[in-house]
Amino acid sequence: MKGWGFAFSRRWLGYLALVIIFAIGCAGLSYWQIARRDEARAEIERVDTNWAAAPRNVDEVLTTLDSFDPADKWTPVILTGRYLSDDELLARGRPLDGNAGFEQLVPFQLADGSVFIVDRGWIRAGNEQDTPDVIPRVPTGEVTVVARLKGGEPNIPGRSAPDGQVATINLDTIAGIIDRPIYSRAYGLLASEDPASSAIPVAVTKPVADEGPHLSYAFQWIVFGIMAFIALGWAVRQEYRAKNADDPQERQRAEARRRKAEAKGPTDAEAEDAILDHAGR
């Protein structure tokens, strides 16, 4: 089939359909990466806003034991009561800077009898055993705590922990262990205590603002979609040249391309091949 008629054959229309489907998929993946970037930017904004917010009474933010708005993550809250040190737990599997460790979880009882879980910070695992060598003691008596809110973690099936430890900070699981009514949707990362303890675990630091590579990935998917059409066009052009090789105009264009290539001289790779061939003789 001479000319461009072959491009409308069932085979090439099938190729075009595949390229269109591929390009649509690339566009969808690009949009997904942009959405992921928007989520990351929203989280960065939430961290910046809530981290710098003035502390509020816990019952102003968590109006019931089972309430928590994710928009309040990192918001500092004030609690006054006492630590229930006999019920403290360790959350296992918490690496920090390449070191194995735990989070120290201590129930904090408020005046109304409700209990809020305070994560006092990170403790390094022991030198000769899995458990920490030393667990910092909590202040006794009435304490005022400022803690940053964070949603409870999901329970992971198949993961277990020995007595006195939990595999995840799943608040329903913790409530069952200590057998007390607790805030079941959020816990707090310790920011300060009054009176202060002489020894405290490693405190949580403000999350690093990082959007991630989502924007570059979004552009890459768009480029992949465009390249698919370019590759299809190149393949159509190559078949056109093969099918119309005896056409006078196409022969003239082929000769022009040949002269242009000769005028440029050999590529570096061709020159190296020629040197190697000559040396091997």
TrEMBL record:
<feature type="compositionally biased region" description="Basic and acidic residues">
    <location>
        <begin position="242"/>
        <end position="255"/>
    </location>
</feature>
<keyword id="KW-1003">Cell membrane</keyword>
<comment type="similarity">
    <text>Belongs to the SURF1 family.</text>
</comment>
<dbReference type="InterPro" id="IPR045214">
    <property type="entry name" value="Surf1/Surf4"/>
</dbReference>
<keyword id="KW-0812">Transmembrane</keyword>
<feature type="region of interest" description="Disordered">
    <location>
        <begin position="242"/>
        <end position="281"/>
    </location>
</feature>
<dbReference type="Pfam" id="PF02104">
    <property type="entry name" value="SURF1"/>
</dbReference>
<dbReference type="InterPro" id="IPR002994">
    <property type="entry name" value="Surf1/Shy1"/>
</dbReference>
<keyword id="KW-0472">Membrane</keyword>
<dbReference type="GO" id="GO:0005886">
    <property type="term" value="C:plasma membrane"/>
</dbReference>
<feature type="transmembrane region" description="Helical">
    <location>
        <begin position="217"/>
        <end position="236"/>
    </location>
</feature>
<keyword id="KW-1133">Transmembrane helix</keyword>
<feature type="transmembrane region" description="Helical">
    <location>
        <begin position="12"/>
        <end position="32"/>
    </location>
</feature>
<protein>
    <recommendedName>
        <fullName>SURF1-like protein</fullName>
    </recommendedName>
</protein>
